[in-house]
Amino acid sequence: MTDFTPFQSLLGGALIGLSAVLLMALHGRIAGMTGILTGVIPPVSSDWQWRAAFIAGAIAAPLLVVLAGKEIPFSVPVPTLALVIGGFLVGIGVHFGGGCPSGHGICGIARLSPRSFVAVATFMATAFVTVFIIRHVIGG
Amino acid sequence: MNKLVSAFLIGGLFGLGIAVSGMINPAKVLNFFDIAGTWDPSLIFVMGGGLAVAFTGYRLVFGQREAPVFESAFALPAKRAIDWQLVCGAAIFGIGWGIAGFCPGASIPALGLGYSATPIFVAAVIAGIVAARFARTRFTQPAAA
Hints:
By secondary structure, chain A is mainly α. Chain A contains 6 helices and no strands.
């Protein structure tokens, strides 16, 4: 079980949205982790520096929260093999799908991009079906 | 302000949002998808909060500025086509997301928490992106003569 956290989730979502708006206003970029990450995987893109800085900041923030003594709930309820297979599929999927929940789900839908609506509807649907099959058909 | 400092701080805001919202926690993400079991609807609120701010903020930005502060133009996705690559890619991503409970935007900030599961997932994502990039250049784009 995980706790239902409507207020923290709304606040956290708003911070993600604010990050997306600032990245557009200052850097003119979509705050999609797939796109940002892809640019620092060799062969790196010519503008890899701001991407690396964004990623460093994204890693540093939760670390600082923990160092400040606040607890961040974290638990991985799947075996390592599932992380490897799932991660590999995620990598293939975001490459061909052109984005992930941050890029399509927040930035793309906020721009009313038809591609993003299709992508979000598709990956939400397959994620719901996958979890249902794993937890209730295979594991049920 | 320096461009890289700005990107670092904006990335920090993103990572903070991922942590505060609960997206950083794979157990929470998997419970969001488990309507028939231990359902946790919190992630609807993450998307709601994110979209409300991004939708409003993007309109303010595009309405008031011709170009971003640090660059000469906004870099917006040019692709418009809804093709098989988009649909199949998104479908495969959703399957992987449902298996692992992690997405790229959640796993990168989670590296900062220091658990060993996260770098394993991130390495697998990078391997998947590299494999897909190779497959795309190898099979879908004819090599220039």
